[in-house]
C-alpha cells in the first residue's frame, strides 16, 4: 500500500471542504491522469525522488493499475487519493480474493485528513463489490500512524511478521524480477470475519504491488 505522509498544517474547517469522488478507471480522461500524476509527484517526492519517478508524464499509477479510485478534491485540485484493484493472493496454499488498496496519498498541506476519511468513502464500495477482504501493505515505520488512524477505529487489523512476494512492474537486467518485503499487512474485513483470514507468513501477489 503506497503511502505518502507529510507534515500536517490543516484543520477541521479545511478538511470539511474536501469533496470525494468514486471513479472507475475507464472514466478518467487524459487531463485527469495528468492532474493525478502531478499530485503523486508532489506527494511522494518528499519521501525520495525514486518514489516520485513512476509518475513521470501523465502516468497516474506506480505498479499495477487500479480499477477504482477514491479521489478527494478541494478548491486547489486533488487533495487525497486511494486506489483499489481486485486480485487473488496466495497465502499458505490458499487462493484468496481481495481488493488490494494502494496509491494512498494526501496533499502535504492536508496530511491531517488521514486515511480514515478516504476509507469512509471506499468501504461502502468494498461492500458493493462483494469482496471478502480489503488488503494493503505498509512500511513498519508507519505502524503507529496506521494504528491510530485505522485499527483503533475498528476498520482494520494490522499483521506483522509476514513477507510479501511481488513482481517489479518493469524488468531490470540488474535486479531480480521478484521482490520480497517484510511489511505490515493491513486487512479490512468486509464479507468475512478476520478469523477467516488464512494462516501463513508468506503472501504471494503474483503481480506488481498496487
UniProtKB/TrEMBL annotation:
GO terms for molecular function: acyltransferase activity. It holds the Pfam family NodA. GO terms for cellular component: cytosol. Its EC number is 2.3.1.-. This is Nodulation protein A. It is found in: Cytoplasm. It comes from the Bacteria. Its main location: cytoplasm. N-acyltransferase required for nodulation. Acts in the production of a small, heat-stable compound (Nod) that stimulates mitosis in various plant protoplasts. Belongs to the NodA family. The keyword DNA-binding does not apply. It comes from Rhizobium sp. STM 270. Keywords: Acyltransferase, Cytoplasm, Nodulation, Transferase. It is an enzyme of class 2 (transferase).
Amino acid at each position: 500500500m503506497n503511502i505518502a505522509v507529510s507534515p500536517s498544517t490543516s484543520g477541521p474547517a479545511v478538511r470539511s471542504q474536501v469533496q470525494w469522488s468514486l471513479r472507475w478507471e475507464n472514466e478518467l480522461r487524459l487531463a485527469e491522469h495528468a492532474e493525478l500524476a502531478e499530485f503523486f509527484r508532489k506527494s511522494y517526492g518528499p519521501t525520495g525522488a525514486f518514489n516520485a519517478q513512476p509518475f513521470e508524464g501523465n502516468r497516474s499509477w506506480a505498479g499495477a493499475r487500479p480499477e477504482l479510485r477514491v479521489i478527494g478534491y478541494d478548491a486547489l485540485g486533488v487533495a487525497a487519493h486511494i486506489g483499489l484493484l481486485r486480485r487473488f493472493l496466495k497465502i499458505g496454499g490458499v487462493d484468496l480474493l481481495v481488493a488490494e488498496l494502494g496509491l494512498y496519498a494526501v496533499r502535504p498541506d492536508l496530511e491531517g485528513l488521514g486515511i480514515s476519511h478516504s476509507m469512509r468513502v471506499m468501504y461502502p464500495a468494498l461492500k458493493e463489490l462483494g469482496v471478502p477482504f480489503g488488503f494493503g501493505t505498509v512500511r513498519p515505520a508507519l505502524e503507529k500512524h496506521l494504528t491510530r488512524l485505522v485499527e483503533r477505529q475498528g476498520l482494520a487489523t494490522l499483521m506483522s511478521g509476514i513477507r510479501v512476494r511481488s513482481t517489479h512492474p518493469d524488468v531490470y537486467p540488474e535486479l531480480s524480477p521478484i521482490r520480497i518485503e517484510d511489511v505490515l499487512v493491513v486487512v479490512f474485513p468486509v464479507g468475512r470475519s478476520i478469523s477467516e483470514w488464512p494462516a501463513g507468513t508468506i503472501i504471494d501477489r503474483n503481480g506488481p504491488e498496487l
